[in-house]
Structures are given as C-alpha cells and as structure tokens.
Amino acid sequence: MRECLPIYAKLIREGEIRASNGSEALCLSWLLQRRVEEGSVVRIEELYPAPNLARVYEGPLQLLTEGWPTPLLKISGPPREAYAKLEWYNPFSFSIKDRTVYALLRSVEGERLVEVSSGNVAVAMGALGNVMGKRVKIYIPSAGSYVAPLLDVLGVEHQILDVTLTVEALEHLEKDIREGAVHPNQFNNDANFVAHVRTAAEADWQLAQVGKRPTHVVAGIGTSGHAAALGFYFGVKYGAKLIAVEPKDWIPGIRRVESGMKWIHWVDAAVVEVSLREAMEGVREFARRYGLLIGPSAGAVYAAYKRMEEEGVYLMVFPDNLLKYVPILDKLP
C-alpha cells in the first residue's frame, strides 16, 4: 500500500487527480471506498464530510458514516492556537476506533473474526460486528480487562490474557485462525492508515471553515494509524509537524514506538514522552477548565501540547473520553 502514498499526496496537494492506470485506480478506490475507474478524475472534496443535518438515521451504521464530522473544539487562541478533535462522539465505542474498525471490517472477508485489543478496538469491533453480522472473538491483555463488562453486554466472546501489551497477545490468535477465523489485524492492515487519511480530510475541511491551517498535529500513538495518517496529510498539504505522543511508562491506549508499530515510520515525526501522572494531570486540568472528561490518552496529548513553545495552529486528536476508565480510576495517579 505504501506505493499509494505518492498518489494520495498528489490528490491532497493539488485537489484532484486522474487515475491514469489500474494501480492508481485501485489506490483511489481504497481511499474513496468506492470503485474508481481508470481514466476518471477524483477530487479531494469527495473526502469531506456530508453530515445528516436532520440527524434522523435509517440504521445504526448511519450514526457513524453520516454522523461525521466529530466536533472540533477551540481551546486556545494565538500565539499557540489549538483545536481538539473530540472523537468520543463516534457512536459505538465512543472513540476514534470506530473509524478504524469500520475500515478494517470492510477490508476483510469472512463472518468469524478474531482480534487482540486493550480497549477501544475491542468494543468497536464487538459493536460493529453485531451490526454488520460478524461473529467476533477478542483477546484482551490484563491491563484492558476493564472493557470486559462492555463486551459481556454486547455478547462478544472474549478472553483475558496474562500479558501487558496487545502485541504480546498476537500469538494467541493462531489456533482461531487455523480453525477459519479471519484476523482483521489492526496493527498491520493498511485500511487503518487509509481510514485516517479520510479523518484528516475531515479535520482539514472543518478548520477551513474558520480560515485555519494547522502548523502542528499532536496525536498519541497506539497502532500509529491515525497519528501517521494525519501527519502525512497535513505534512503534504501545509508542511505541518507531527508531534507523536508515547507513554513514558503506561497509559491506556498508547504505547512506545519500540514496542512495534508500522505507519509511524512512513512519516516524519517528533516523538515525545508523557508519563501516566502527567496524562492524568492533563485530564483533571482539562475537566476543570472546560468541563469535559477526556480519556487518559487525550490527557497525554493535551499535556504534550502544553509543553510546546512554537507559535502556530495546533490540531490535537482526543481519541476517547474518561467514562470507560471509571473502573480503574482509583488505580491511576
């Protein structure tokens, strides 16, 4: 899929592209989620959101696809102007992972799926699996056990493992795969990255409504799908810098680059460390200033932004809110 990046870059930079051969048409089909014919012209506007203004939906999937864009909240003016994209407005897992999982499920065949997740992907895949007629099994590292009650409500088969990181749980999928289950593979399936090129276009459209162009993108890295895609899009279009946030110790939903991730290596990024204590201080400060209960990884993103000294327009991605972490709040600093 990496061969598609120059094609996407031309579309982002120039606003349109002609699919001059079959390979280009295939790359554009993947991005636009429809068949693109060789020789046809694709315009960037097709990636912009088309919200359902009446907010009346014929089915649950439309809550997702016609519910975009998620809100963009201005939290600071110049000289370090900042906007936060509130991804808990996605309806199934109340997180950015609804976008990821929807793209993953569209990219694979099969009715029986197996995945590993420490939290949001588990809930999103369970919920969307129900909606899309898939039977889902989730392996959960011990640190993500707080989502097990939600999976019980969804009727999703799951198993909690005595490992810390999601990537350590991958070997447990082998038996299920031998027995015919399909692994959508949030860590390696390029549908993850491509989904968030669309997320970036959505945020770009929103910022354009208020005459803004981001100079910096601040995002946490878990699989690195959304951080890398936003860094790619805004780097190509405006030369924006990507600030990729990793945990100094442990923060739910994000991990360190050396634990193994694919897409962060496709882009230029300044990687910064944030501790769990700093992240939770960010959560509390944001709640007391803006009244919003952001999740720990969003707290880490906010903490990283607060350290920044360069002037400009900052786009932050807040992946989820705090509510699903209530069972472990007393264990967090």
Automatic annotation (TrEMBL):
One Gene Ontology MF term: cysteine synthase activity
Pfam families according to UniProt: PALP
Superkingdom classification of source: Archaea
Enzyme class per UniProt: transferase
Protein name: Cysteine synthase
EC numbers: 2.5.1.47
Domain spans labelled Tryptophan synthase beta chain-like PALP: 66-319
InterPro entries to which the protein is assigned, alphabetical: Cys_Synth/Cystath_Beta-Synth (IPR050214), TrpB-like_PALP (IPR001926), TrpB-like_PALP_sf (IPR036052)
